[in-house]
UniProtKB/TrEMBL annotation:
PANTHER family: RAB FAMILY, RAS-RELATED PROTEIN RABG3F. It comes from Cephalotus follicularis. This is Ras-related protein Rab7. GO terms for cellular component: plasma membrane; vacuolar membrane. CDD domains: Rab7 (cd01862). It is a lipid-anchor. Protein transport. Probably involved in vesicular traffic.
Amino acid sequence: MPSRRRTLLKVIILGDSGVGKTSLMNQYVNKKFSNQYKATIGADFLTKEVQFEDRLFTLQIWDTAGQERFQSLGVAFYRGADCCVLVYDVNSMKSFDNLNNWREEFLIQANPSDAENFPFVVLGNKIDVDGGNSRVVSEKKARAWCASKGNIPYFETSAKEGVNVEEAFQVIAKNALKSGEEEEIYLPDTIDVGSSSQPRSGGCEC
């Protein structure tokens, strides 16, 4: 039987303030929704264990503040991410238009080794509001944007009603896994990433 190694996969959720990032995370991890809106200060994260092919993975899902005054915190949170989730509110054109800024900001701050193929997933949230009558961003428009950015997977979600949340995070986890596996092959499990065959001096190479 294959060994059940635990692997940590880091997922970052980005998007404008109030689009439902925290609610999506809570719905996925805790199966809960709250109508009480509380802005995230800085960043927060939840973890959830997922299993693929007899391997256990811990998804570490980081929810970052949408307010611009917290964006300077970005670098530390973005580094080492295995997947980035871009969230907008289907009832807010501004939140959709800002997806491009969030995506570019992430690529600059996280500086992934293969920016062209880094996995993103886009979620159009709040499809439940007003029975869908308030929406201003069509699914066609959102899918066209995702296609233009290298066929980013797209889901329409309702954090409140749990619509497509589980399905979206399954794809997020799979994409994070693909991204994270490349690192696993090359990096040993220790902090020392130098060649193990080379004797190392005791000094810090910070």
